[in-house]
UniProtKB/TrEMBL annotation:
Membrane topology note: Multi-pass membrane protein
P-type ATPase A domain sequence ranges: 185-286
InterPro entries: ATPase_P-typ_cyto_dom_N (IPR023299), ATPase_P-typ_P_site (IPR018303), ATPase_P-typ_TM_dom_sf (IPR023298), ATPase_P-typ_transduc_dom_A_sf (IPR008250), ATPase_P-type_domA (IPR059000), HAD-like_sf (IPR036412), HAD_sf (IPR023214), P-typ_ATPase_IB (IPR027256)
Keyword Zinc: no
GO annotation, cellular component aspect: plasma membrane
Keywords for this protein: ATP-binding, Cell membrane, Ion transport, Magnesium, Membrane, Metal-binding, Nucleotide-binding, Phosphoprotein, Translocase, Transmembrane, Transmembrane helix, Transport
GO annotation terms (biological process): copper ion homeostasis
Gene3D superfamilies cross-referenced by the UniProt entry: Calcium-transporting ATPase, cytoplasmic domain N, Calcium-transporting ATPase, cytoplasmic transduction domain A, HAD superfamily/HAD-like
Subcellular location per the Swiss-Prot or TrEMBL entry: Cell membrane
NCBIfam families, per database record: ATPase-IB1_Cu, ATPase-IB_hvy, ATPase_P-type
Species per Swiss-Prot/TrEMBL record: Halolamina pelagica
UniProt similarity note: Belongs to the cation transport ATPase (P-type) (TC 3.A.3) family. Type IB subfamily.
Keyword flag Metal-binding: yes
Protein name: Cu2+-exporting ATPase
């Protein structure tokens, strides 16, 4: 509560394929375990096992398909080549096709079983129908040789399906590596210091809260905790994204999984296991990978609809062609072609690949997405509200000036203010105490400390009731402001400084001017968001004059000043009532109501507070530039989703009528071979297009604005 004294204190698609693939046959159990040899978790190992399985089956099936292609009369006629015939060569096509079907095709039949059991036919069911009909029809032509077989179309279709699944599992595994890499950061053992000062090596799982551990130079920190002894620099980039090692000394927090520098540290364990920052971040990344966006749900539904469309189209095609040419091999060929064309593999791949890559890119750039819909909505934001202190400004204050009423010594006033602030950890309190220390002042003893949310603090000093706080405190106490202190406050406001008041026994006795530096990044953030057509607003509990000075320097469009924490969500609602989609950027704790009210809640600088439940997106670094990167990634990801759906669905819209034979009267018939080729092209295009998301430019251009400007601290 002390920190409040001044106002601030998708994946389901992959499961569908992966779980089924994992049970395709017993001889692949070894493959499914392949991915776990290097210490990956089951999630990553599962995907790597499936990737290896599909990869091996693709290459084996492709090699076995070569004789079928070479001895296909159709291909020989198309490309004008011939191969030697020999006794028994007529059996090459059926024999090799049967082997390819049994090795590369049967797994798809097994993957269709769960769909049928769940009465939710989809991609696997359609693939199974297509290859089964093609297989049975081709075998029938061996018995009734007057009809032409299309064994080569069958093996090609199976090869393409295996290739598509290999590409998908490879992409999923790469995206899942964000979690796997995090898991690798935590060491297996730790050096625990015993009561007699000796060290013992124990598994990290045996550490308990309160244990003291030794972290040697270059070793990984085994758990979250507080440094009790030692000085070092800790590499935290893998957790927080901080590019430079962070200096650590007694009293500083360290995060499990980070790498110690050149000094030794003795750390008192504060959290272990599932309670650590790293475990929380991993949960957030996994939740994001498994959650579905609106577009993904639409694609899933479309794939389900496509099954019924395909079956209906196949039935209509069979009836129509039977009426026209009577039931014969041509009718079967048309039905098979329709089923091949309707295969929703590309559609099923369209969104999951983008979601997986998006989540991976977000994690790599310090963005932990808790709500996929929020990530999707970020591209549509009309306005973004920033909480000022510590977000747009550095949040590091100093006392730059002070004024007192007649008869009160400035140093006595500062010592009195430091006494009142002695129990507060708020940044303003620290600044006042540091100012007193620099002057060699000894604050008197204080008792009865109380934080007054959004207004200030109160304590009893030498029998007097003393308050320290901002303008809202004076309003509550109804304290009159002497003219010369008012002039002091006005001048401080013009200089973008915050004024904190000292009130003793109801009488205003002193005022302190505080300064906070505007972040260099803040100028770039505002300019970049304006370039994206997004309105920028600022929320602060500081006075209107101070807030306006900061806003004018940054070029902010809308300012909400003198706002109490409990009223912040009303300002979000105010913009929403104007029909705007609003994002809120805050610290995720005191700003919780506003973050919840916003269409997209963004907790900034809360990477070590993974329990924040109010934000949709958590930005690990305390860097406002990540807000721009979030919007850019959201826009780029949604564009890729749309492009992929167009490629996947557009292919079906174009090819299904041709497969059914609507242009047969003018001599245009789509063969199963061409259908398989079109389907494979659609799948490959979707996969490649999704991978291009990795090239999205998330950088934010430099601006000419300087970084030396100062802004007021928000005494909210």
């Amino acid at each position: 509560m002390a920190d409040d004294s001044h106002g601030k204190a998708d994946g389901a698609d992959h499961k569908h394929h992966g779980e089924a693939a994992g049970s395709d046959d017993g001889d692949d159990e070894g493959d499914n375990g392949h991915g776990s040899h290097d210490g990956h978790d089951d999630h990553g190992g599962m995907h790597e096992g499936h990737e290896q399985m599909f990869r091996r089956r693709f290459f084996v099936s492709a090699v076995l398909s070569i004789p079928v292609l070479l001895y296909s009369e159709t291909l020989q006629e198309w490309f004008g080549f011939s191969v030697p015939a020999f006794p028994g060569s007529e059996w090459i096509n059926p024999v090799f096709a049967v082997v390819v079907f049994a090795y590369g095709g049967v797994p798809f039949l097994r993957m269709a079983v769960p769909e049928l059991k769940d009465r939710a036919p989809g991609m696997m069911t359609l693939i199974s129908m297509a290859i089964s009909v093609a297989f049975v029809y081709s075998l029938a032509t061996v018995v009734f040789p007057e009809q032409s077989a299309f064994f080569w179309e069958l093996v090609t279709l199976i090869d393409i399906m295996l290739l598509g699944h290999w590409v998908e599992m490879r992409s999923v595994r790469r995206a899942s590596s964000a979690v796997d890499e995090l898991a690798k950061l935590m060491p297996d053992t730790a050096e625990r210091i015993t009561d007699d000062g000796e060290t013992e090596e124990v598994p990290v799982s045996e550490l308990a809260e309160g244990d003291l551990v030794l972290v040697r130079p270059g070793a990984s920190v085994p758990a979250d905790g507080i440094v009790e002894e030692g000085d070092s620099a800790v590499e935290e980039s893998m957790i927080t994204g901080e590019s430079k090692p962070v200096s650590k000394e007694p009293g500083d927090e360290v995060i499990g999984g980070t790498i110690n520098g050149d000094g030794s540290l003795r750390v008192r364990v504060g959290a272990t296991g599932e309670e650590t920052t790293l475990a929380g971040i991993m949960r957030l990344v996994e939740e994001a990978q498994q959650s579905k966006s609106q577009t993904q749900v639409l694609a899933d539904r479309a794939a389900g609809w496509l099954f019924y469309v395909a079956v209906g189209a196949a039935v209509v095609t069979a009836i129509a062609w039977t009426l026209v040419v009577s039931f014969n091999a041509t009718v079967i060929e048309r039905v098979v072609t329709v089923l091949v064309i309707a295969c929703p593999h590309a559609l099923g791949l369209a969104i999951p690949l983008v979601v997986a890559i998006n989540t991976s890119l977000a994690a790599q750039n310090g963005m932990l997405v808790r709500d996929r819909i929020a990530m999707e909505e970020a591209r549509n934001l009309d306005a973004i509200i920033f909480d000022k202190t510590g977000t747009l400004t550095e949040g590091e204050h100093g006392v730059v000036d002070m004024a007192t009423v007649d008869g009160v010594d400035a140093e006595d006033a500062l010592a009195l203010a430091a006494a009142v602030e002695s129990d507060s950890e708020h940044m303003i309190a620290r600044a006042i105490r540091e100012a007193a220390d620099e002057r060699g002042l000894t604050p008197p003893d204080a008792s009865g400390f109380e934080a007054i949310k959004g207004r200030g603090v109160r304590a009893t000093v030498e029998g007097d009731e003393v308050y320290v706080g901002g303008p809202n405190l004076l309003t509550q106490l109804d304290s009159a402001v002497p003219d010369h202190l008012q002039r002091f406050a006005d001048e401080a406001g013009q200089n973008a400084q915050t004024v904190v008041y000292l009130v003793r026994e109801g009488e205003l006795v002193a005022a302190f001017a505080m300064a906070d530096v505007i972040r260099e990044e803040s100028f770039r953030v505002v300019d970049a968001l304006h370039d994206l057509g997004i309105e920028v607003a600022m929320l602060t509990g500081d006075s209107q004059d101070v807030a306006t000075a900061v806003a004018d320097e940054l070029g902010i469009d809308t300012v909400f000043a003198e706002v109490l924490p409990e009223d912040k969500d009303e300002k979000v609602q105010e913009l929403q009532d104007q029909g705007k989609l609003v994002g809120m950027v805050g610290d995720g704790v005191n700003d919780a109501p506003a973050l919840t009210r916003a269409d997209v809640g963004i907790a900034i600088g809360s990477g070590t507070d993974v329990a924040v439940q109010s934000a949709d997106v958590i930005l690990v670094q305390n860097n406002p530039l990540d807000v721009v990167r979030l919007v850019k990634l959201s826009t780029a990801s949604y564009r890729k989703m749309q492009e992929n759906i167009v490629w996947a669905a557009g292919y079906n819209v174009f090819a299904l009528p041709l497969a059914a034979g609507v242009l047969a009267p003018i001599g245009v018939l789509l063969s199963p071979a061409v259908g398989a080729l079109l389907m494979s092209m659609s799948t490959v295009i979707v996969a490649i297009n999704a991978q291009l998301l990795r090239r999205v430019d998330l950088s934010v251009l430099e601006t000419a604005a300087g970084a030396s400007s100062t802004a007021a601290h928000a005494v909210d």
